[in-house]
Write a structure and sequence with these properties.
Length: 351
């Protein structure tokens, strides 16, 4: 019995020595890497004020200007380097999305309540014209391959196609959906569109304006934002059931289904850092990375602020811009909470 006790003590000492050694050898960096974050955090806030709601953000790296869709105030423009409010585009109340076409010095903004697209001069921000499109235009994106602008008409189940140089409507694509949401172009002749009511993604040939693919998104429900890695042909689809679905943009095969925060409303992909950012209304930002060929993993969850649900990427310094505000008490159950005066802020998230 005494020998067994002595043997047990020796075994315990050996095991303890082994685990202690791991803390000071090559296993320590592995543990650190497993727990490490990207280092991203909110590094600056800029008070913009007002009680207007907001929607999408669009960034112009050439001018360093951030275009903010403020529903009651219209398109607001901020220089992110000088932190100055440059101005606002007149007659863009009710704006949802903004597409920038620097080669023609034009901006295009969807006015969802009026079924219009407002065209403005990028230099002066002066209005140029208004274009009648489908019902409830929401997302809008530019395809450099065809030099066309595509509106995603949320309640109209259609896409209106506009010649970016002239502002002329050149076609309308019916999408057989009662609720479309977001779209991205690959710049190579394809447009990908989320169908919220069908939990599918469709592919449109931007030359022929024909639907060429229609894919299921697996466990994802109510797809909302989307981004693309054009080099690897990967689609990142954020879904309102707190899932990010990653698709092969050539075949439609599902490569990953990953957890994200609640209320995801925007996704961006940084081609330099190879990071995918999904902004969530719950005050978090999910970061995803390809950790092995074809294998994607959630590597970080960044704390932002509640309501910071739409974002834009700064490709120069790899920062992320988001906006949010503080909210009051709803007037009645089920109503949207009011935005408190002078609490609307621009967040810079960087490392």
């Amino acid at each position: 019995m005494q020998k067994n006790r002595q043997l047990s003590k020796v075994i315990i000492m050996i095991v303890a020595s082994f685990f202690a050694s791991m803390l000071f050898t090559g296993l320590q960096p592995q543990i650190a890497n497993a727990e490490a974050t990207t280092g991203y955090q909110v590094t600056a806030t800029q008070l913009l004020g007002g009680t207007s709601g907001w929607d999408y953000l669009t960034f112009d790296n050439n001018t360093r200007q951030l275009f903010i869709a403020r529903r009651e105030l219209g398109v607001n423009v901020v220089n992110v380097d000088t932190h100055q409010l440059i101005g606002a585009v007149k007659d863009t109340r009710g704006v949802n999305g903004i597409a920038l076409v620097p080669e023609f010095n034009r901006g295009y903004a969807t006015l969802g309540e009026d079924d219009l697209v407002a065209v403005f001069n990028l230099t002066t921000l002066a209005p140029i014209e208004e274009i009648i499109v489908g019902k409830d235009p929401d997302c809008i994106t530019y395809d450099p391959a065809t030099k066309r602008v595509f509106t995603i008409n949320g309640e109209g189940g259609s896409t209106t196609v506009i010649d970016a140089a002239t502002g002329k409507v050149v076609g309308t694509i019916l999408l057989s959906s009662k609720k479309t949401e977001f779209a991205v172009a690959d710049g190579k002749g394809k447009l990908f569109v989320n169908l919220q009511d069908k939990n599918e993604v469709i592919t449109i040939d931007t030359n022929s304006l024909k639907i060429i693919n229609q894919w299921s998104i697996g466990s994802g429900k109510k797809p909302t934002p989307m981004a693309i890695d054009v080099e690897k042909d990967r689609l990142f689809v954020g879904c309102r059931n707190s899932v990010m679905v990653i698709l092969d943009a050539k075949t439609g095969s599902i490569m990953a289904e990953l957890p994200v925060g609640a209320g995801i409303d925007a996704v961006v992909f940084d081609p330099v850092t190879q990071l995918v950012f999904g902004s969530n209304g719950d005050g978090t930002m999910t970061v995803i990375q390809e950790t092995a060929p074809g294998k994607y993993t959630v590597i970080d969850t960044i704390k932002t602020l509640p309501g910071a649900r739409t974002i834009a990427l700064d490709p120069k310094n790899h920062s992320i811009y988001a906006v949010t505000a503080q909210f009051g008490t709803p007037e009645k159950p089920g109503a949207k909470p009011p935005i408190l005066p002078d609490t609307f802020v621009l967040l810079t998230i960087s490392r």
